[in-house]
Each structure stands twice: as structure tokens, then as C-alpha cells.
């Protein structure tokens, strides 16, 4: 088994594991921090942003690059459409991925880049809340950027990174950054997702049984258990042992794994989420008492639900219950409505409210009583009529590079009575505010991240007792802000990895399960050779198809399983005597030239050869068939007639030596 690390963002992971000839992608997170290198996209032209001076390198200046870079308070920004850093696409071709397993909606934002316009033909699996809330995130992202289009795209600066100041000079794979996908790409990628429920078992092409189990982090978030008859692999990403609104983490399903892959630990390990929630409520109340308004940049789902509840109660206790709250997002209406119909994915306390009956989240009550109002944008109908100050505004995007939050910064930034409070830990808040400086409004950093911290992760690992622990290398080193925080498991075998690395995992196939046809099983006569030990000989035809081994009777017809590519074929098996007489043991390597000649002799034409990635692939275009040669395996992937697969198998065997 191998693991490929396609992303260096620990909070937005993307990995691929290969096992039994399958390529399984675990999450497809999108690194959004790259947008901090770009100027914000205001809804209306900003006098300040449009009059920033050009940045000119001290040497090797290219006049064609004039206007691409702007300078603000000692920082240099790209004046162009924001771009995102994708998972690495050169380690493995995305078209060869068989399955994508999504753990939560925050880790699926790169899905359109992977499944659309890449030749991807695999399957994607996620829970229903992950799919629906992921849709809200993707649609909001597209809307925010498309509603404020840029006239041109800057590209020349990427060739001059060595001349630029930090942090642009350290930009990772800048030439691979991509602008946002289209809404059509979003719809296309989400149409490939198959919904699964917690603890539902899924057979992945006969190689694994995949099961999503609750991770306790957010609505519908999952850890994945991949099991065979003899192995167990657990993928733990974005988990929480705290008591919040999602269903609690299922630890029992993760115990005693052969391999435990853990990622997605907290981005704010030195702070307590409850403490920061209290600070947020206090800062909002102080802002309102000073006759100012509070801006809280947020995502359209997740922690924002808890903020509505806690902040409203706190303001009521402080005698500020008449202060209006506004939730502004292109998907605000859908997000608020959907959150109240997810009883089975909620904690028991929230579920009990549904059965009373009552709303699981109090924001439904606030909406009915106009304490909370929602709009698509600041320019939406009715907003200017309802808007009054002081107030509290929840809107996106947390990066402050696009979305309605940019408008409020422009409107409130010069008033020191106003405040902006950051709760999302994805973006360093000082870098977020950089293009708006100098700024008079107060800024508070109250990161609320409920995912596992280092102490909780160490405790969980000890309880799960895996044979091998696989974690990013950064988790084994002291955290930059807290030297005593890191993963330390002296009694465990730990394997670490970095972005761009391919590592071997100590999981080798020793045994596999073989199914015996019922007709053959009925004829077995066991003989006891010792106390409690019985033996029997068995003669049959071993059929290997879609990684499932089955022994069929020699004299009976072999029919392909219903639903497989060979459904409907009747292939008469040879007699027992013929089988025993013609047994051969093949060995050696395939001579490609000899194989090509034999294929031509057998009537196969229009064959394309590819040697990418160190492996040989033959594409039989007319037969819609692919032959893949790997280190110790050869796969015949047949989309046409099943007889073609058998014919190709015989041709391959003729190219090997035998005795």
C-alpha cells in the first residue's frame, strides 16, 4: 500500500492511497490562503483600492507587468482575479482515480477541479449533509467572485517571483494556481456524488468495504473505515470530542486498526473554543454599547449556527435584545432552512428538540421574530429598508477578498467605534486586513475551532490502539506558538509524510477471501485428521473478476455475476480431466513487441501505447479496453464484450514462459 500526499495544507487535506490496484482519494481540500495575495473585489469601485501605487521591482523590470502589482502599507498585492492552490496533479493522473471519499464539506471544495475536464470516471461518496452544505459553500464561492468580475487576469508576475518581496516571493507552485471554477462545473462535480449514511457499508470494487462513521466535527462529518477480511485502515480527518451540535464521534469503530491515518487537527491549538466564544460575545456587547456595529466574517454553515444562539442569548442578558442581526450570503436562505431538517445528524440534545416538536436550532425562532434577518447581498431587495445601526452582521468571505464583507469594511472601516471579529482560523487575520490598512475600526481575533487539539489527539490515539499511526510530519514537531504541543506516541510505530511525498505503508496482502460456489460446496466431504481439524481436497475453476475470487465447479457453466460487465455470458468450463491435464505455471515478464504482434494476429488493431508514470498501458480503442501493466499485476479493464477479456487473457499468457 502506498500513500500520496497531494496537499501541504494540514486543515484541507488531499491524499491518495493505492491498494489492490485501486486508487482511492481521501478528501479534496482546496487551499484558499493564496487569495490573500490578491486585492479585494469590491461590489462598487473603491477609490482607495483603485488608486494604490504600482509596485516596480528594483531590477529586471518588465514594462508589460505594470499594473499587475499594487503596493499598500509595505505589502504587495496582485491586482487580478483571486486564484487558488489545487491539490498536486502530477503525482497521479486524476483520470485514474477510482473512488473519492469525502470526510466533511470543508474538505471537498477542490472537487470541481478534480472531476471536471480531467477525464475522471470514478465514484464520489459523502454523507447527505456533506453534499448539500458543500453545495452551499461552492455556490457561494462562485457567486462572490462572479458578482465582482475583473477586466483582466495578471500572469506575468509569476515569472518574477525572485524579484518580489515576501510573501509573494515564497508563493508555492504559483504557476499552478487556478481561477475559480464555473457554476456548471460545480453542478457537474456534485452530480457524481453518491450519498451514504453513517455506518452504511459500501463494497468498493471488491477490494474494500468502506464505512463512514460520525467524526463529531460538523453536520455530516465522517471518519472512514476501510476494511477487508484481514485488514483495517481508518482515516480520521476533522474530528472532535467536544459536545456541540453534530452527532458525537464514534470511537469504537476506529479501534485496533492496522493503519490509522490522522489529519485535520485544530489550527488554533493554544486557545479554548468556549473561552473565545465568550470573548466574542463580550466584544460585540462592548461595541454595541459604544454605539458601534460589529462585523463577523463567516462561512455559510458550521460554527455560525452556534454564534447565532450564543450571541443572541448574551445580548439579551446584557439588555441589548433590540439590536438587529443580519446574515448575508447568496445561500443564506437555503443554509438556514436546511439546518433544521437534519435531525438524524445532530447531537441527542438537538434531536430531542425535534421530537417535542421544536426547532433544533434557535435561529428558526429568531427568524420568525425578526431578531435575525437574512439576505443574499447588501444590494438585495429590502435590505436597505431593514438595515439600521448599531447592528451585528454575519457575512462572507472570511478572507475579506470578495463577498459582502468587503463592502462593510469600506463602509465602517474609518469609525473606531465599529469592530470586526474573526472566528474562522483558516486565515491569519493580520494578512486578511493588510490591503485595508490604515484601518480605524477595532479588530479582534477569536478563533473557534472545535477539531481535535494535540492533547485530545494523543488521548484518542492511545484509546484507539492502532498498529501503525500515519500523520503529517508537522504534527511530530513542536507547534510554532506552543513548543510543548505535538503528537507523541512512544509506544506506537509512527510513519510521517510531507507534501509531495509518496510513502509505503506496512500493509501487505497476506490472505484473501475466496468464495466457493454453492454446488461445489455441497459436494465437499471433509475427513477429520486430528482433533477438531478436518481436511478436504477441492478441484474447480478459479475465477477472478473485479478483485473477487470464486471457485466454480469444473463441469458446470460459469455465469458472470448480475450487474457486472460480463452479465449474460455463458462460458462452459472444461471437464475435470482437461483441467488437471492442462495445468501450466506461467512465469517471466511480458515482451511488449511479442505481445503487439500476437494482438495483431488475433485481430486487434488501433492500439495506443502509453508509458507514463513508469508503467505500461495499452489502449485497445476499437474494443473499448485497457491493459495496464504494473510491478506485479496486470489488469484488463474491458468495457465491451466479456469474451474480449478472456481472449486477451489467453493472448497474454502465451507471451509468458511456462512449465
List the helices and strands and how they pair.
Blueprint: E1 2-5, E2 15-19, E3 22-26, H1 47-50, E4 69-72, E5 75-78, E6 99-101, H2 111-115, E7 123-127, H3 128-146, H4 183-190, E8 193-196, E9 202-204, E10 208-214, E11 222-227, E12 232-237, E13 259-263, H5 273-289, E14 294-297, H6 303-317, E15 325-328, H7 332-339, H8 348-354, H9 363-368, E16 372-375, H10 383-386, E17 392-395, H11 404-412, E18 419-422, H12 429-433, E19 442-445, H13 454-464, E20 468-472, E21 493-497, E22 502-504, E23 514-516, H14 518-522, E24 527-530, E25 533-535, E26 541-545, E27 548-552, E28 557-559, E29 570-572, H15 576-581, E30 586-587, H16 592-601, E31 607-610, E32 616-620, E33 625-629, E34 634-638, H17 642-654, E35 657-658
Q: How many DSSP-defined strands?
A: 35
Classify the secondary structure makeup into a structural class.
alpha/beta
CATH superfamily of the largest domain: Ribonuclease Z/Hydroxyacylglutathione hydrolase-like
Overall geometry: globular
List keywords for this structure.
659 residues, alpha/beta, Rossmann fold, TATA-Binding Protein, seven-stranded mixed β-sheet, IntS9-like_C, Integrator complex subunit 9, RibonucZ/Hydroxyglut_hydro
What does this entry look like structurally?
- It holds the Pfam family Beta-Casp.
- Its main location: cytoplasm.
- This is Integrator complex subunit 9.
- Keywords: Cytoplasm, Nucleus.
- The structure is a single chain.
- The chain is an alpha/beta fold and 659 residues long.
- It folds into three domains: 322 residues, Ribonuclease Z/Hydroxyacylglutathione hydrolase-like (Metallo-beta-lactamase, Chain A); 173 residues, Rossmann fold (3-Layer(aba) Sandwich), CATH 3.40.50; 76 residues, TATA-Binding Protein (2-Layer Sandwich).
- The protein is built from 17 helices and 35 strands.
- 38% of the residues are buried.
- About 2% of the residues have low confidence.
Amino acid at each position: 500500500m502506498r500513500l500520496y500526499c497531494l496537499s501541504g495544507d494540514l486543515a484541507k487535506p488531499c491524499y491518495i492511497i493505492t491498494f489492490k490496484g485501486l486508487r482511492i482519494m481521501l478528501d479534496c481540500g482546496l487551499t484558499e490562503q493564496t487569495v490573500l495575495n490578491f486585492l479585494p473585489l469590491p461590489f462598487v469601485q473603491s477609490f482607495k483600492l483603485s488608486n494604490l501605487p504600482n509596485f516596480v521591482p528594483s531590477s529586471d523590470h518588465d514594462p508589460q507587468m505594470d499594473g499587475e502589482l499594487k503596493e499598500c502599507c509595505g505589502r504587495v498585492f496582485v491586482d487580478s482575479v483571486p486564484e487558488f492552490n489545487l491539490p498536486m496533479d502530477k503525482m497521479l493522473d486524476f483520470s485514474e482515480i477510482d473512488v473519492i471519499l469525502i470526510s466533511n464539506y470543508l474538505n471537498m471544495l477542490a472537487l470541481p477541479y478534480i472531476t471536471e475536464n480531467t477525464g475522471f470516471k470514478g465514484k464520489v461518496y459523502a454523507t447527505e449533509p456533506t453534499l448539500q452544505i458543500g453545495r452551499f459553500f461552492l455556490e457561494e464561492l462562485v457567486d462572490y467572485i462572479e458578482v465582482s468580475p475583473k477586466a483582466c487576469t495578471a500572469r506575468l508576475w509569476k515569472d518574477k517571483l525572485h524579484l518580489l518581496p515576501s510573501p509573494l516571493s515564497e508563493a508555492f507552485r504559483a504557476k499552478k494556481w487556478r481561477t475559480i471554477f464555473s457554476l456548471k462545473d460545480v453542478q457537474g462535480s456534485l452530480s457524481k456524488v453518491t450519498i451514504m449514511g453513517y455506518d452504511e457499508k459500501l463494497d468498493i470494487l471488491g477490494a474494500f468495504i468502506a464505512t463512514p462513521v460520525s467524526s463529531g466535527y460538523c453536520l455530516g462529518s465522517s471518519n472512514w473505515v476501510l476494511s477487508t477480511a484481514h485488514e483495517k485502515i481508518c482515516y480520521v480527518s476533522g474530528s472532535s470530542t467536544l459536545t456541540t451540535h453534530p452527532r458525537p464521534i464514534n470511537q469504537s469503530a476506529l479501534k485496533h486498526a492496522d493503519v490509522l491515518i490522522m489529519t485535520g487537527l485544530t489550527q488554533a491549538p493554544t486557545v479554548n473554543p468556549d473561552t473565545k466564544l465568550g470573548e466574542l460575545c463580550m466584544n460585540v456587547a462592548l461595541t454595541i454599547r459604544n454605539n458601534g456595529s460589529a462585523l463577523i466574517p463567516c462561512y455559510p454553515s458550521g460554527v455560525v449556527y452556534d454564534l447565532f444562539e450564543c450571541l443572541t442569548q448574551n445580548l439579551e442578558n446584557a439588555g441589548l435584545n433590540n439590536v438587529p442581526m443580519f446574515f448575508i450570503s447568496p445561500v443564506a436562505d437555503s443554509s438556514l432552512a436546511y439546518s433544521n431538517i437534519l435531525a438524524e445528524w445532530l447531537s441527542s440534545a438537538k434531536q430531542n428538540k425535534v421530537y417535542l416538536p421544536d426547532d433544533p436550532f434557535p435561529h428558526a425562532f429568531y427568524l420568525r421574530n425578526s431578531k435575525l434577518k437574512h439576505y443574499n447581498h447588501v444590494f438585495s431587495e429590502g435590505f436597505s429598508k431593514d438595515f439600521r445601526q448599531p447592528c451585528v452582521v454575519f457575512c462572507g468571505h472570511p478572507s475579506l477578498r470578495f463577498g459582502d464583507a468587503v463592502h462593510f469594511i469600506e463602509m465602517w472601516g474609518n469609525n473606531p467605534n465599529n469592530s470586526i471579529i474573526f472566528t474562522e482560523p483558516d486565515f491569519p487575520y493580520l494578512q486578511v486586513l493588510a490591503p485595508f490598512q490604515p484601518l480605524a475600526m477595532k479588530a479582534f481575533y477569536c478563533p473557534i475551532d472545535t477539531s481535535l487539539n494535540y492533547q485530545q489527539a494523543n488521548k484518542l490515539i492511545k484509546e484507539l490502539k492502532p498498529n501503525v499511526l500515519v500523520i503529517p510530519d508537522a504534527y511530530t514537531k513542536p507547534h510554532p506558538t506552543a513548543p510543548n504541543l505535538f503528537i507523541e506516541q512512544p509506544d506506537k510505530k509512527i510513519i510521517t509524510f510531507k507534501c509531495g511525498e509518496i510513502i509505503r505503508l506496512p500493509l501487505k496482502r497476506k490472505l484473501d477471501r475466496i468464495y466457493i460456489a454453492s454446488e461445489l460446496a455441497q459436494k465437499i466431504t471433509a475427513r477429520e485428521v486430528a482433533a477438531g481439524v478436518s481436511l478436504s481436497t477441492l478441484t474447480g475453476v478459479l475465477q477472478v473478476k473485479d478483485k473477487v475470487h470464486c471457485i466454480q465447479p469444473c463441469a458446470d457453466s460459469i455465469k458472470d455475476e448480475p450487474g457486472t460487465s460480463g452479465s449474460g455470458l455463458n462460458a462452459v468450463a472444461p471437464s475435470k480431466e482437461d483441467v488437471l491435464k492442462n495445468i501450466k505455471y506461467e512465469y517471466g515478464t511480458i515482451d511488449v513487441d511479442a505481445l503487439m504482434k500476437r494482438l495483431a494476429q488475433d485481430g486487434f488493431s488501433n492500439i495506443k501505447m502509453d508509458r507514463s508514470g513508469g508503467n505500461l498501458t495499452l489502449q485497445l480503442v476499437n474494443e473499448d479496453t485497457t491493459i495496464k501493466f504494473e510491478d506485479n499485476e496486470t489488469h484488463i479493464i474491458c468495457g465491451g464484450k466479456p469474451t474480449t477479456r478472456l481472449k486477451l487473457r489467453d493472448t497474454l499468457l502465451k507471451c509468458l514462459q511456462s512449465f
